[in-house]
Amino acid sequence: MPASLETCLSDLDCSTSSSSSSDLSGFLTDEEDCARLQRPASASGPPVPPLRGAPGITGALDAPGAQDEEQERRRRRGRARVRSEALLHSLRRSRRVKANDRERNRMHNLNAALDALRSVLPSFPDDTKLTKIETLRFAYNYIWALAETLRLADQGLPGASARERLLPPQCAPCLPGPPSPASDAESWGSGAAATSPLSDPSSPAASEDFAYGPGDPLFSFPGLSKDLLHTTSCFVPYH
DNA sequence: TAGGCCATCTGGTCCT
DNA sequence: AGGACCAGATGGCCTA
Length: 239
Known about the structure:
Elements: H1 3-16, H2 30-38, H3 66-120, H4 132-156, H5 162-166
Helix pairs in contact: 1-3, 3-4
The protein binds a DNA duplex through residues 2-4, 95-96, 98-100, 102-104, 106-107, 111, 131-133.
């Protein structure tokens, strides 16, 4: 049990043990259960032996009414314990509810970030929403393809910028900033394929299990269905 | 109906 | 100490 809870409950034990009523006051406590179990079958048997360390073990108990007082004290302690356990349960519950709330919020934020990521990835004709894993994999490959495009541009086409030389006008929003979320997927398919990421060991496509392309596999987008992949032709150098 | 995806709850662990 | 993060469990919804 956390220390704060123990502290809290011990305080509450003191403060509530004298309270007049509780819905839980009628419940059996552990001590009372033990006491009953230790009693002989005959209901009028000898009194329950006091618990270890409990006060009143000495001759004071011999006095008339002392045993009743001890039993009453024990009952009070038992009720307080039940109340404190109920309170502990309640505190745990409220903390759990708060934690659940935070976790829900955290996941909502994560989903919002995924939505933002989806919005800067090429959209698809049927407005198919990428799943989470598809979004991450697609983004990974998309970034790789864009970086590769820039690299090729720097190598082979001096002068004009990579964007002007290599990308069709429709793909201009791809680089360097995020593409327009409203990009028409059809417009992404006009580029001509030149190189294959599969030939590059560093390509995220090279090691994966799904390849896409007419004839030769041009790109591999693990986990993506083929009908989502045709837009990737935008990523290759444009002549 | 089985399987995939998702949201939520939950308890454990790490971090500040 | 409390919040963030994580992974497992569970149940609902949807689709082939």
